[in-house]
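To whoever is on call:

I kicked off a structure prediction for a single chain this morning and the downstream step that reads the tokens threw a length-mismatch warning. I double-checked the sequence; it's 422 residues and nothing unusual in it as far as I can see. Pasting both halves so you can look.
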Amino acid sequence: EVDLEERLHELDLRSDLDIPDVPPPTDSTPEILKRALSGLSARWKNWWIRGILSLAMISGFFLIIYLGSFMLMLLVLSIQVKCYHEIITIGYRVYHSYDLPWFRSLSWYFLLCVNYFFYGETVADYFATFVQRREQLQFLIRYHRFISFALYLTGFCMFVLSLVKKHYRLQFYMFAWTHVTLLITVTQSHLVIQNLFEGMIWFLVPISSVICNDITAYIFGFFFGRTPLIKLSPKKTWEGFIGGFFSTVVFGFIFSYFLAQHQYFVCPVEYNSETNRFVTECEPSELFQMKKYSVPPLLQAVLGWETVNMYPFQMHSFALSTFASLIGPFGGFFASGFKRAFKIKDFADTIPGHGGIMDRFDCQYLMATFVHVYITSFIRGPNPSKLLKQLLILQPEQQLSVYKTLKSHLVEKGILQPSLRG
């Protein structure tokens, strides 16, 4: 056992030595900020840079929300492409000396293939009526999965043809690198858009909770942090972790109350084929209708209230905020371990004081998966609107068969009068 541990340790050291040093990212801080903050210490300079850029990004995010759901989808797609670029670039820089043939071209080709598959599924699922009216799209939708497989198979064959003697292992390693990156970025961004279609509130509350936790944990850690939390992130502290948790839960509860009052945020995002626009108009579900709840006896003595009025969604916000605070940070820890493994400080230098786009969205991907699982497990039921869209694209004889079967079923259940038979 001792010999085995020594051999594993030697392999770890050898693998670390095999990784060449990656050039440190350049300082992309605007000159006007550098001059304005030149008199501050490095710690406070970083504080102000992070703060100013955070406010700028939040302001831009609110502007995109105002522009509508389609712009939010474009934002998600843009972030996905940039995160993919940052991770792939790290692999390319680390192993640039090997000059692998076709690596970068194949990486981007596989990105296009996977996006074509996932977003084609979304088009077929949510825009069936629109597709049915355009003959040129019907072929693409009908054979979508076959076309997607053929595109991927082409890339697979290109990879096999690109294999070079003495670099087989490294090429297969980078092939796996590309696919894991696709799994992290494309599939998760696809889930983000799926959540958005359920209602903008399912997009905004989770994302805002992660942002709130990131900001408040940094603030609490900056001013009160004393106890290290995890070795992977030496700057993270228990004080920041706990302060961020309570702040995020309170924020999620209040933010949910505000959003639940507006149809624009709570209605499912649907495409109106007549106006060629995304619409968010509906009768809000029970989740977004004010209800009266009894306060637990233990809290009645403290609050002095016997009942409280709130939206049911606010209770779900506790689950979303709790996950964002307790589990979401592990996405950041995972990213920190990844960066340490390849001896880099940040994924890129896109945002001054923050690093790359991936540095800011490392926790969001875990959150997207959780929200999607949460909706499908506890929220979503049968969707009559979605089922109706699927029925409308059937052939007339198929629609008639469905009609007769449904009519017979309703008569047997006593919902329709027997006089309506025939």
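Update from on-call: the warning came from a stale cache, not from the record. Cleared it. Sanity check on the structure: The longest strand covers residues 233-237.
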